[in-house]
Amino acid sequence: MDQLYIVYVDDQREILSTLEKDLKLFEAHVRLEACESASEAMQLIDELDRAGDHLAVLISDHIMPGQSGIDFLTAINNDGRFFTTKKVLLTGQATHKDTILAINNARIEKYIEKPWKSKEFTESIQQLLTQFIVANGIDYTAYQAIVHQPTLWAYLQKNT
Amino acid sequence: MPVSPAHIDPDIVQRLWAKYFQPSARELVLEKGEFLLRQNQQNKRLFLVLTGEVAGFLESESGNRHEMFRSAQKMFVGVHSFFSESFSAYADVIALQRSTLSYIEYDSFTQSEQHTLIEDFAPVIVHELSARQRFTQNMMLAKESALKKLYLTEKYASLGQMAAGLAHELNNAIGVINGNSEWIANEVYEYFRNTEIETIFSYFDRGFKTGQTLSSQEVRQKTRQMTERHKMPAGAARKLAQIDFDAHKLSQFSGVMDLDEITDRMHHFWEMGVAIHDILLASKHAVHVLQSIKQLSVSDQERSLLNINTTLTEALTLLRNATRVVNVDFRPGDLPELHANHGELVQMWVNIIKNACESMSGAQTENPTLFIETGRKRNAVWVKIANNGPCIPKEFLQQVFQPNFTTKKDGLSFGLGLGLAIVQRLVDSYNGRIEVKSVPGNTAFEIRIPINLT
Q: B176, B408, B416, B436: which one has the fewest Cβ atoms less than 10 Å from its Cβ?
């Protein structure tokens, strides 16, 4: 119950294991799950939702066999259960049209281009995770070690 | 540029011949290459070609000869000088083969005869005028298409140069990365082998040699087993699952050391091994792509003996990203070696395969599959590249090989419309043939290249 999840989807294992290293700092507080396809990810987040856990951040590649990243993120965007989930598109190959779709239909919070810079990536995820925590009224003190301090500060100043 | 002779109504010729040529006809015979007239030479004769063929040439300032007209049997020569009363040949007229001509002399007619002559010859004169006009038009069109071709060749050449420049720019960087990553990988490997205990090193070794072998789903399954059966915290269970740890060995560790600590250590070393494994793989891939780009550069036109199957494999590697989302069914046949340019062939396959992939992904074809087959038939090698995507509309089939024809006008994934035109040009340069057949669910390009037996 109430476990936070970061799920990342890419059909290339090398990319998944690189992402995993960049996300390591969250490891102790958030469950990290790698998926090799959109359908695998869908199954996983169904399960975690049923268990009463939260999908905080969803990171997806775009060009994958089966469902594309943007279609997948669009489906998640239209799924009431994941209304507050922060969606990230991580891709090197989106066309202009894809990008428009990603913003308008999938309502992604962040577009990260491959190859990405580890530090910037981690900070982005930290920000998004923090936004998710405060937006959902989750006790942020339990995540003190990994929250993005400026984001948290901004929130606290506005709300106290 | 040869121009096919335009014929005037034979009845008119017959009539004129009977009236003017037959009574006083004089004949002359020219051997092939012999001059009938020279530019600016005086000429008061009107010729009728009886057999053979003559052609008029103008010499340009640069000394090149340009064909201006061509007259075959039953056609007149000298119409301009005769009827314009300039009496001066405006072109060199040369026999293209042994030819017989009949002619009349202007001065042999009386003034009144000359007038009826002009009236009678009016259709011939008009015909001549319009023929010259048509000829100029054809020349213009030919020039235009030549210019277009030149423009395309240049466009293509500059793309090739850009690619070559890019490859050159990346060459050193990737060279350094590749060389040093191999070196450092071996150093690290040796270092760990000498300093770490066997258990820990074995996980580094496995990650190093095979990379990540378990799928994300398998890892999740194993994690679940570990947490359920062995009552392990999720974090540690996931690490053990990732390194494919044999749960039976758990008992060996119990009590000996802190399980968490050794789990972390094994996982860490495995992860380092996998990272190095992936770096080496990625850098090899980068080197390979770079080599392929270099081979594509147009400056290299050297031909050597090669196997077509190798060039197909190479094209598939180049297009690894595009072909990742489709099934590739490659059935290389037993092929003799061919005298060809490596880069040109790779380019051909890349262009066709890329189109196939884009058409399938554009139409979201279910179970998209690329079929590639090669074989030998008599003195030719054939390559068939097919896909189960949407078909090419009938009205486009004729046009797909034309330069500037493209259906890809979508956002950034636009096409230059050069792909298949380049393929056609290259196939032509090998005296080969390319055919396309397309029905819904099967579009196939078949290329035949004759085996050069010399």
A: B176
Q: Which two tokens stand for residue A86?
A: 């922060």
Q: Where are the domains of chain A?
A: 4-116
- pLDDT per residue as tens digits for the range B364-407: 888 899 999 999 988 899 999 999 988 888 888 877 887 667 76
Measured CA to CA, the distance from residue B396 to residue B271 in angstroms comes to 53
Q: What is the rounded average pLDDT for all residues in chain B?
A: 84
A118 touches chain B (CB under 8 A): no
pLDDT at B295: 59
- The C-alpha atoms of residue B206 and residue B274 are separated, in whole angstroms, by 8
Reply yes or no on whether the pLDDT at B202 is more than 60: yes
Do B93 and B20 contact (CB within 8 A), yes or no?
Answer: no
Q: What band does B322 get if pLDDT is binned at 50, 70 and 90?
A: confident
Q: What is the DSSP string of B6-56?
A: PPPPHHHHHHHIIIIIHHH-EEEEE-TT-EEE-TT-B--EEEEEEES-EEE
Q: pLDDT by residue (tens digit) across A74-112? A: 999 999 999 999 999 998 777 888 899 999 999 999 999
Which domains, ranges and CATH numbers included, belong to chain B? 10-108 (2.60.120.10), 170-295 (no CATH), 301-450 (3.30.565.10)
Of A40, A64, A96, the CB nearest to B325: A64
Q: Using alpha carbons, list the distances in angstroms from residue B300 to B156, B295, B303, B306.
A: 14, 7, 9, 15
- Per-residue model confidence (pLDDT) at position B282: 87
Q: What is the mean pLDDT of residues A57-82?
A: 94
Q: A4-116 maps to which CATH number? A: 3.40.50.2300
- Residues of chain A found within 8 Å of residue B278, distances taken between Cβ atoms: 14, 17-18
Q: Which of residues 59-98 of A touch B (CB under 8 A)?
A: 63-65, 93, 95-97
Give Cβ neighbours of residue B447 (< 8 Å, ≥ 6 apart): B348, B382, B383, B384, B385, B423, B427, B432, B433, B434
What are the DSSP calls for B149-192, one per residue? HHHHHHHHHHHHHHHHHHHHHHHHHHHHHHHHHHHHHHHHHHHH
CA atoms within 13 A on the CB side of A53: 17
